[in-house]
């Protein structure tokens, strides 16, 4: 059908994270509407959106209160900015709310539009701070392999995945990567989780010493890595990493873009794993992605050098036209109210524990190498051989196959290589978790037969 939506999509759209041929072969999945944890395509087929879109839609897909909040703000003040001395009520209310919600003392909020922009902003704040403090040599930021922090030039540099770097000649200067805490994949034979964490902290310290501690400004990490394959930190990891950072007075940026607002069963991933960040970066579940918005929370250590006019390096020349957009901020505020009123964090903890338990029941399946996760974020790692952890043909082939079968069976998940991720809306019930598990079992059995 030359004029079908599918054909027109292929003709006119360049999609993110695919190439045109692959998109054509797979065929577009055109989603028309959503309700609760479900979405429906243009043929009327219904799916459980077990990824909440892109790790985003905490409150579900058809929340009238968010629609009403947007409409109300749109009629009152559809746009304003926050450059220099201008402000507006949604910006003030949301900043106050976020500072109050922070699990560690934070003094200021700064608003951006995407996770990538927020991480770029964090880097610029840190570089500005070093200059303001008279330490211009202190510009290096350490990120991790498998970490995901976005796709702009600077945030893609922080991202530690080959596709985001190799073909773009990244990373830029001053960005370094250390090992990822992927215990199942990267621990040495016989190494316990604690030993693995100790080794990673030692490797980090070696890197800092080799570079010169006086040149290292910050470390960035997701409390639980998302796009890198849902990598849950092994025992002792964050405690040991933070001890090294403290020793050399290196700032910590917690990228809470996925973990923030309940995903791990607490309001922030930093609480679950005892992180004491100087900067927190948040987006996605901040507004359930109904509208684009992201935010940074910074503590006094970061804020004071930025605020001090006597630093003689000029104003903090940074900000976005739509940063803290009033309609997006109003939606975010209402979204946070809903998360609190409906105790979605409690639901993530309780139904999350159930989801983790049900997924772990699949560990005995021939194709399942590992099940990992916490709260309402998880991945199963698919293998051809459990003992050697070898993939089935090309790495990622089994993940893509199973993901496709699962979609046919009515569940949208996402495969990152052979890791199949589950990150459903925080409103999910136990019965709906059972639906996912049942479709997943069927899909794994079908994959085994191919
Ligand atoms: N940080 C993390 C942890 C993410 O998962 C993402 C996106 O998936 C980003 C940053 C980038 O966010 P955006 O796609 O809004 O630029």
From TrEMBL:
Co-factor(s): pyridoxal 5'-phosphate
Entry keywords, A to Z: Aminotransferase, Pyridoxal phosphate, Pyruvate, Transferase
Entry's Gene Ontology BP terms: biotin biosynthetic process; gamma-aminobutyric acid metabolic process
GO molecular function terms listed in the Swiss-Prot or TrEMBL record: adenosylmethionine-8-amino-7-oxononanoate transaminase activity; pyridoxal phosphate binding
Domain of life the protein comes from: Bacteria
Xref: InterPro entries: Aminotrans_3, Aminotrans_3_PPA_site, PyrdxlP-dep_Trfase, PyrdxlP-dep_Trfase_major, PyrdxlP-dep_Trfase_small
Similarity remark: Belongs to the class-III pyridoxal-phosphate-dependent aminotransferase family.
Alphabetical list of PANTHER family matching this protein: ADENOSYLMETHIONINE-8-AMINO-7-OXONONANOATE AMINOTRANSFERASE
Name of the protein described by the UniProt record: 4-aminobutyrate--pyruvate transaminase
